[in-house]
Amino acid sequence: MYHLNNLPGALPNEKLIGVYRRHPITILGLIIAFCVILALPFAAYLMLKVFRNEYFQNQQLMAVFIMFGGLFFLFVIMFIYQNFLDYWLDMWIVTNQRIINIEQNGLFSRTTSELRLYRVQDVTAKVTGFVQTMLDYGMVYVQTAGEKEYFTFEDVHHPNQISKQILELAEFDRKEHLEEAMETAAETTIEKEDALREKMAAHIEP
Prior knowledge:
- By secondary structure, this protein is of the alpha+beta class.
- It has helices spanning about 30-50, 60-90, 130-135, 160-205, and strands at about 15-20, 90-95, 100-105, 110-115, 120-125, 135-145, 150-155.
- The protein folds into two domains: about 5-20 and about 90-200, Bacterial Pleckstrin homology domain (PH-domain like, Roll); about 30-85.
- The chain is built from four helices and seven strands, in the order βααββββαββα.
- A four-stranded antiparallel β-sheet has the order 1-2-3-4. A three-stranded antiparallel β-sheet has the order 5-6-7.
- The chain is elongated.
């Protein structure tokens, strides 16, 4: 579970609400491709064993086969590892004050962006197709008042619940910021009035 201490630039009184990743079904194609690719060398071995068994009597050819087989498995493992990292490290973190979007690009590149909840204007959940409807996953679009029009949660589980939760948190955060703004304005007004009284008193005194 993601811990609050791991949040980038944690804010005062910030509480972790949820950490969301893409639905596991989205990597099903990757798993199938991995199984197929992994089976290819064994299929090739069996074909050669049946139709070209003499190849296995040649030590030089066997050394070449082993070398290329090792390289093949190395590239397959690297490919699967990179795609799994892209799946696992892509995440959307929701707290009581902001939304954090972390995108993993390759092995050594990561982009982190955040949105304060009081700037959220609208949240839309989109579920398309039979599979998404049955498994209850889809897209969540968070419309903002900033330069970036949308924050997008991609293929997350329970998109309708997430969108409702973000709207409730955003409404609560806006109220808190409004109260803070009013308190700040009231304090500023009191300070100005006190300063004005001091100036008037200084002029009135003989």
